């Protein structure tokens, strides 16, 4: 076993601090070296205890979590996992935290809900351990507040006709920022782009709205029965599966509330396999940064069915789990840094 990661828990609720400390301490990879009820106490304990990872609540007294995170990433960068509420306000603030450099987030546990704490514990500990593994490279990773950039010489690719071209993207940890960086470098008349990003309900709608304000393409949260249109990005709704089905010449979104696939709703595997079944003549599939291996096997099936597949490289990925799994399976025709993927997509379309 490698070095045990030191964790500082920051939350204004004594009960939440107790639950988080017990959950994290139960994992042999992790140890809680301290807790803090507010940001000024957290600042002092970071200096005294030198944690590897911080879990951070957004709503706290004296200084809100976003302001504290901004100061932390500027003065003393550390891997941070945000604790979020499942509300529109919580979603907006959490997405802002990811823009500022937080590694990941998790919904606050619903204390007392049957089976919830056990599921929460496994997810939290995996996210904290993954965040801790990034400490050594975090100093090099300045937070990137995305600014729309006009693609250089990226004129709209020629259209092959309705239902004949499709781009599908899978992503997880680090994916919200990677997607923003990728999509802003594509022109506004791309073939339909369908995205399965691991994200909870409420968050997906807010994420789609934030992306829509930043990039040239139109971005929407996918709706059941929606016909895919050129120039539009469809974000899978959190807590549901998104698949693509063929209806004559048209391709449509199928949003269903069925079982998780690879523990995920939405799942990259569910989306990618539906594209294989839809028999789209020209498919470009991209696997971006993410923890785990969801979608890797389905990406291989896409490649075998004739799709051109691209995996984000390790250097530019926040977590090289999903793209790394795809590469190991031989599912990627191309392995590319994030800033090279837009050009690759445009070249394949032309």
From TrEMBL:
It is found in: Cytoplasm. It catalyses: [protein]-L-glutamate 5-O-methyl ester + H2O = L-glutamyl-[protein] + methanol + H(+); L-glutaminyl-[protein] + H2O = L-glutamyl-[protein] + NH4(+). PROSITE patterns: CHEB (PS50122), RESPONSE_REGULATORY (PS50110). The active site is at residues 172, 198, 294. It comes from the Bacteria. Residues 6-123 form the Response regulatory domain. Transmembrane segments: none annotated. This is Protein-glutamate methylesterase/protein-glutamine glutaminase. It comes from Neptunomonas marina.
């Amino acid at each position: 076993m490698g070095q045990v990661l030191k964790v500082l828990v920051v939350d204004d609720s004594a009960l939440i601090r107790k639950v988080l400390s017990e959950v994290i301490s139960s994992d042999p990879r992790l140890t809680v070296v301290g807790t803090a009820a507010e940001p000024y106490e957290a600042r002092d304990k970071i200096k005294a205890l030198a944690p590897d990872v911080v879990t951070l609540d957004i709503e706290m007294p004296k200084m809100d979590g976003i302001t504290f995170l901004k100061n932390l990433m500027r003065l003393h960068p550390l891997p941070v996992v945000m604790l979020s509420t499942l509300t529109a306000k919580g979603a907006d603030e959490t997405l802002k935290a990811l823009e500022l450099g937080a590694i990941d987030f998790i919904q606050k546990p619903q204390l007392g809900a049957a089976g919830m704490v056990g599921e929460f514990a496994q997810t939290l500990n995996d996210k904290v351990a993954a965040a801790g593994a990034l400490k050594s490279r975090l100093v090099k990773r300045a937070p990137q507040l995305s600014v729309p950039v006009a693609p250089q010489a990226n004129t709209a690719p020629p259209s092959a006709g309705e239902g004949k071209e499709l781009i599908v993207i899978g992503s997880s940890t680090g994916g919200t920022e990677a997607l923003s960086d990728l999509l802003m470098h594509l022109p506004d008349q791309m073939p339909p782009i369908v995205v399965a990003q691991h994200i909870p309900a409420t968050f997906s709608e807010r994420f789609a709205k934030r992306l829509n304000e930043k990039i040239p393409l139109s971005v929407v949260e996918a709706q059941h029965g929606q016909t895919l249109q050129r120039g539009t990005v469809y974000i899978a709704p959190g807590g549901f599966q998104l698949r693509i089905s063929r209806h004559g010449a048209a391709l449509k979104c199928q949003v269903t509330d069925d079982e998780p696939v690879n523990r995920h709703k939405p799942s990259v595997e569910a989306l990618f396999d539906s594209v294989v079944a839809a028999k789209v003549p020209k498919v470009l599939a991209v696997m971006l940064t993410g923890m785990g291996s969801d979608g890797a096997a389905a990406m291989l099936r896409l490649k075998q069915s004739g799709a051109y597949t691209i995996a984000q490289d390790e250097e530019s990925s926040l977590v090289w789990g999903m793209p790394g799994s795809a590469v190991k399976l031989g599912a990627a025709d191309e392995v590319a840094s994030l800033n090279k993927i837009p050009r690759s997509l445009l070249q394949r379309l032309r």
